[in-house]
Design goal:
The chain is of the alpha/beta class and 257 residues long. It is 38% helix and 23% strand. It contains seven helices and ten strands.
Length: 257
Amino acid sequence: MIKISSLSKSFGRFKAVENLDINIQRGEIFGLVGPNGSGKTTTILVLLDILDPDPGAKITIDGKEIPKRINEVYHKIGFMPQELSLYLDLTIEQNLKFFGNLYKIPKPIIDSHIQEVLELIDLTEYKKRLISKCSGGMQRRCSLAVALLHQPEILILDEPTVGIDPELRIEFWNYFKKISKEKGVTILITTHYLAESINCDQIGLMNKKILISGTPIELMENVRRLKNLESLPDMEEVFIHYTHQEKKEKKLGGIGR
């Protein structure tokens, strides 16, 4: 569904993303996992044709070459940015109607789409509330509802659980799993919360490039075996192991040169 190869992105002399490769299957939840500044958001902005990649990158979404054919797939994508992108002086329902019109959802069905996402995200009883009067968690729910409103085949979520309480974080992951399993939605999600990456079908541990990818259990089992641990390590220990391994490889490479 989403294929990226040899993706790099530079800002002057600073390399934000370096030779990144990922392959996301249809209906899969794929997590780009890494600390702040590891290039996750930059990767998404390139994928959405908001930023231009360095020469040599190859990107396809649903078989369409990006950015050349981006207009053919935009309608299939729902995007939830890291920052709030709602109108504070409108209600939840009014925001959804506004974005529904931007998505060009036909007027006869826009109300049913709004009702469906309100029910899914548990916002029905608050739909008349101004965004400015909503809690941070409720605003994040509404942002997710906007991304889901046009029933996209692909959902791109940039740090969707940042700044919300643990209970709502669990609810969000339940939503993601539900739409992935029941509707076959392909989900690309970025997070720096290593513990929650266990919810993904596949993850790529990222530090400007993909250090390693696989299922969370596979990566934990690899580190358990390599370090002769009695039990599975947590994802934080997994990430530390692979970042340390990368540093060693860079050091050895420098000596070799």
